[in-house]
């Protein structure tokens, strides 16, 4: 366990993600985390030289596929799982929604 | 290997009374009972009696001269991360076993609206996080072409069901190559549409800025048929594009003299030698038919894989936060709410899912966000712009996979080896463009595929080129013997 430099970080991340890890699992995940983080960090260096804005939605600002005049939201009223009172039925364990 | 009738031909023959949907249903059920014990393509299967009953209903309708849908009598398998209210939807996870959604995904409604018979839900890597279909809580799926090898992932169950004749058509999903890699490994066709062309309503989310539900089949014409049915605007998906329904089924085979293919150096190199040789053979063949080959460069492609995984992990950590042991089947059984959540997530998620959530939390956390997530999204912008520039004038020819289908377990010991399998496919997801993988050759009994990437909403051009290639290879409709 002590050989993995990311153990403290792993503990914090697991707490934030609300995932309890067994000892053995923590050990192997720690090694994977170390290795994967190193791999992903390679995006950091190159991005510093890129003078561009982040892209979160692939057709953002790309005209032909966007219709900026239209609202891009979903109304709860559109969902087929709402009740007469306007509540949304939650998909309970193994259950089916009864007709509203 | 043997050839089956293509699904569109079958559907036509059902309508014309040349083939009987009931007899066909029995044949498919027979293939399932012969292969499932080895392959494990399905997590849940519809009752055989119900399948036959449905086929009889279709047959009666046809005999009575009723108007039937485009998919009438066809047996369609659906990846188990797509919601169905009549079969459990587990996403390959203990967390959702046995979850029965209260609604059907839009794509499922559209299949049923065209009289398709949904035969079962196919296996996948847990929450679609994987490239081999070994990481399912319901056991690995094996490749029908060689059961010691994987079928690719995460839509490996869908591809395998097609490869042994256990379904006529299939729906997969593709976040970074999850429909295309299995297609390359099983001699089937996988088609990731333009981002937003197919509704994601009812798709259990993993990386929602990247993924699309994707048609899979044994021929190019068949994936086109399926795309036309499931595609088009859906008011229930905010990222659904307001465009007309796709019309790719009627596309004609491309005239080679009017096709330009771009060979992007970074997407042509780096694969195993047998795969590179197959790639160049089909391109030279196309050139000899009159296709123009042009060279292009995409230097940012070398950063596509880490950028893709950073974004996918970040989105996964957010999307999977909903599994808290309250609303879904897995319960923690702790003495407090906090403990209940932690225990449910400990018991419900597999190792790979936990790792991706933890990496996503890391990439989004204060102090690291700029270094990881924001950096990745900047690379995504540059890559998208470059891919849009290239695909404006040509279709990109790319490898589909750097390797032949690996043996079970071969790629699991090292996460980076597993991720590297997606090196050619993640680019289409980052750029949002359509991409089609189809078989071109066999090497020692194992399939090799090629990938075509087009411009946004350029699905019809890809189908036209795919039909041309299919005519040259003669590999439409192949299944294992």
User: Separation of termini of chain B?
Assistant: 5 Å
Report the β-strand fraction of chain B as a percent range: 5-15%
Quaternary structure of the protein: heterodimer
The radius of gyration computed from the alpha-carbon positions of chain A, rounded to a whole number of angstroms, is 23 Å
Describe this structure in words.
The complex is a heterodimer of chains A (100) and B (481). Chain A is mainly α and 100 residues long. Chain A has one domain (1-91). Helices cover 35% and strands 0% of the residues of chain A. Chain A is built from 3 helices and no strands. Chain A has helices spanning 7-16, 23-40, 42-48. Chain A starts with 6 loop residues before the first helix and ends in a 52-residue tail after the last helix. Mean pLDDT of chain A is 75; it is low at 91-100. Chain B is an alpha/beta fold. Chain B has a domain at 2-255 and 434-479: Alpha-Beta Complex (Amidase signature (AS) enzymes). Chain B is built from 16 helices and 13 strands. Chain B has helices at 7-15, 21-39, 48-63, 106-113, 156-163, 180-186, 220-230, 265-268, 273-288, 304-319, 337-348, 351-364, 370-391, 415-419, 426-431, 459-473; strands spanning 2-3, 42-45, 75-79, 117-122, 169-174, 189-192, 212-217, 260-264, 292-296, 395-399, 435-443, 446-453, 478-479. Chain B has an 11-stranded mixed beta sheet, sandwiched between helices. Chain B has a two-stranded antiparallel ribbon with strand order 1-13. In chain B, helix 10 packs across helix 12 (351-364). The relative contact order of chain B is 0.14. The mean pLDDT of chain B is 96. At the A-B interface, helix 1, helix 2 and helix 3 of A face helix 10, helix 11, helix 12, helix 13 and helix 14 of B.
